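tool=predict chain=A
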Amino acid sequence: MTQPDTANQIAELQARLQQSEARNAALQDELEHFVRNVSHDLRAPLRHISAYAPLVREMLAEGEDPAPCLDTLEQSARSMARMVDALLELSRLGRIPLQCQPLDMAALVAEARRELAADSAGRHIDWQLPEAWPSLSGDAALLRQLWRHLLSNAIKFTRPRPQAQITIGWEPAADGFSFWVRDNGVGFNPAASGTMFELFQRLHTVSEFEGAGIGLALARKIVQRHGGSMSAQAVQDGGCTVRFTLAAG
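tool=predict ok
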């Protein structure tokens, strides 16, 4: 092997090492950010439990009915249980092997809509669906779950509309296909679009809409497992469009 060949190999190895170090640093930053956010969110129900438990003890000692405080304690415990379940599901989505196969995307969307029938019962929803779908492969069970999360959000956030409109579409993209779910719901502040896919992030109060900020985080993880990306655009009180990409094949 000549000296130039050896030098080229060393340079190539150094470049790969630098790329690997950069990826590891980015993953470390992402992990630290995730742990900070999750730790903060998990403390909220714990604070409620810590605050109300002494009150229950005092009320029992004084012969008062602690039922209202017990209700709050129960709600906090359920909230923490949902958070733990979400963490376990997010971890599972990152570990399970993909069962890729040719997809019938129309059937997956139809199944997701059937699963959400109770949420839309009695509502006037104008569904706009593609007449044809692209040919691609993926994990059918996970992608059905993806559609369920996205359509569930669209159904929920169009609830205040007397005539809801939910549009599903797709178009060719650089390395595959871009899909979207568009609704005429309440939308959100565009400034929050950078954090809305993080676990436990809520863009509306619990009094406005139920939920724990879990669905979009799980949806993004499913898309990432398929090598795609997810984004959202919206205006306050002007609807929302969630887009995701999937590779062709």
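The domain at 3-95 is CATH 1.10.287.130 (Helix Hairpins). DSSP finds six helices and seven strands in the chain.
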